[in-house]
Predict the structure.
Amino acid sequence: MIDFAALALAPGISTFARPITVRPLRSQPGKPAYTARGVWNSRNVEVATEDNRLLNTRTLTIGIRLSEFTVPLKTQDVIDVPAYRSLPAENTLWIDDIDLDGQGGATLFLKRGLPPKNQVTGS
């Protein structure tokens, strides 16, 4: 069996990742923030509305290697992306969705700000 995560994903993460800080509000409630790394991506997207107008928005994602997280991340965990080299900071983002790639990685889809309080507590 080929370990894709070790052969391809690990070198890619090592080359392109930048530091992030995870505040595990939902995956580890009450635990302190910790540092990790991920590959940042910001992409412009055009969305057609019902009346055929175009709305421009951005999709914010971070690609991660799952084996680098001892406790899996959950939606509503908060991610801070500090300034790194020539890249600006992207602070206070929360995980809206997690897309597992089936080969040892995942894409975290992010939203700006803090998650709604009723979602963090699960109520």
Observations:
- The chain has a mean pLDDT of 91.
- The helical segments are 4-16, 117-120.
